[in-house]
Design a protein that fits this description.
Blueprint lengths: L6 H16 L4 H4 L9 H10 L3 E3 L5 E3 L1 H7 L4 H16 L11 H7 L2 H9 L8 H41 L4 E2 L11 E6 L2 E12 L7 E5 H9 L3 E7 L6 E5 L1 H5 L13 E5 L8 E2 L2
Parallel strand pairs: 5-7
Antiparallel strand pairs: 1-2, 3-4, 4-5, 6-9, 7-8, 8-10
Helix pairs in contact: 1-3
Length: 284
């Protein structure tokens, strides 16, 4: 989709959908239609990106199942809501990741065109069941996408640790986390090239700047670290063209780990990368 979503694009897509449902229109013919103030070629591009329209075998445009669903919706605001959902599914826009923070935060930071479509669809202020379901659905999608993205970053850090340990010791370590996430550490290496004692490594990675990066340490990971005779934490900063690594001992991390108090028992703690800024060095 070459043009950002806006109320004009949304309205023109709806108009094109109506035209295609009533007439035999080829893609070339669609580019000659007058569809508001938006160039018709951009409208066609958007409608096909939303999967509202496709080219039939005979060469004419036709409404897809998604398009037919939108056509069946006579309420203009509800049709806009359908368009927003189809837009998100097709484009996975960056503002989607704002939705877990709530509607207000999304409206404050989303692009102007998106914000206006949201307003005109009644999703900016309504709290009816449909509106709540819309926002909850986007937030769930964002969390899923974000979790997948975080998992990919974590795997990249683990892979860097495997290569770093192979170079450091001359022996390929075991990538434990690839097989199981319940062991409490990610990589099993050795103390050094001349010391074959087990070294367990917990890996954390972030693509954020050091001032904004943090990692979550679970109680299981911390208990495993203390049970291991030799354990280190690898923090990978993946900002910039070359990764930076901080290798931390248990004592490095100890000052940032909470203590149980009374009947309370901590389960997870968030620790900033910046607390160990002096420990990072660039890895070739």
């Amino acid at each position: 989709m070459s043009r950002p979503l806006s109320p004009s694009i949304a309205l023109a897509c709806s108009e094109l959908l109506e035209v295609v449902s009533r007439n035999a229109v080829t893609p070339a013919g669609a580019t000659g239609l007058a569809l508001g103030a938006v160039p018709s070629v951009d409208v066609l591009d958007a409608a096909m990106a939303f999967r509202w329209i496709e080219v039939a075998p005979e060469g004419a445009l036709k409404a897809t199942a998604r398009g037919a669903r939108a056509l069946a919706e006579s309420d203009g605001r509800r049709r806009l809501r359908l368009l927003l959902i189809d837009y998100v599914e097709a484009m996975s826009p960056s503002w989607l990741y704002l939705t877990p923070s709530g509607r207000r935060e999304t409206l404050l930071q989303a692009p102007p065109g998106i914000r206006q479509v949201i307003v005109e669809s009644g999703l900016a202020y309504d709290d009816d069941e449909d509106a709540v379901a819309f926002w909850d659905g986007l937030a769930a999608r964002a969390r899923g996408s974000r979790d997948a993205s975080l998992a990919e970053i974590g795997r990249r850090g683990e892979r860097l640790t495997v290569e770093h340990e192979r170079t450091r010791t001359g022996v390929l370590p075991k990538w434990i986390a690839l097989d199981s996430s319940s062991d409490g550490y990610d990589v099993l290496s050795m103390v050094s090239a001349s010391d074959q004692r087990r070294l367990t490594v917990e890996v954390k990675a972030s693509e954020r700047p050091l001032s904004l990066a943090y990692f979550h340490l679970t109680r299981n990971e911390w208990e495993m670290a203390n049970e291991s005779l030799n354990h280190v934490f690898h923090l990978w900063s993946l900002v910039g063209p070359r990764p930076m690594l901080a290798t931390l001992s248990i004592n490095h991390v100890l000052a940032h780990v909470p203590a149980d108090s009374g009947d309370g028992c901590w389960k997870s703690v968030s620790i900033p990368f910046e607390a160990f800024a002096g420990e990072f060095s660039t890895i070739a």
